[in-house]
Amino acid sequence: MHREEDLVRRAQRREPEAFGQLYEEHFDRIYRYVVLRVKGQEDAEDITQQVFLKALENIGSYRWRGMPFASWLFRIAHNQVVDYWKKKSREKVAAVAPEEIDQMAEESSNDPAALAELNFDMKQLAAACEQLTDGQREIVSLRFAGGLSVAEAAKVMGKSEGAVKVLQHAALVKLRRILCPTGEEVNV
Question: Considering the entire predicted model, what is its pTM?
Fold first, then answer.
């Protein structure tokens, strides 16, 4: 944590290599969170870049409060995703086609067996997540795609840790029911 705090302070002093290192360390987690929320690779890439641009522009206003820097980035990402969906609803754009999920899976692996498994899992998980409430999708994205702790996810969502745990539990129960309707146990 001390190393990250030092990096943030250096980035606040406009040391490009410090912000570059923060970018490298957090890009994948932020991207995974965003791609699960918007479901389109191109839009997710654009939004992720906007997150880091906003972070760079506003790094001077960041205050260290004992929480990881990632919590602040996820809050920015959350706000960018909300803005994206507001804009999309105004534009009345149709949902992302399943072919885009196929494209994401194809680009992420050269191993045919892993590709087939990822492709199936991505489609199945994306379809199952569509049946969750917005809050449940948000917590699944933050906790499992973003890798945030309960405390970090609570901070991003502006909820108590207890509320986040309840929301996560409800989401996982619902996902189990959706993914295993016959009662087979699946590790979600």
Answer: 0.60
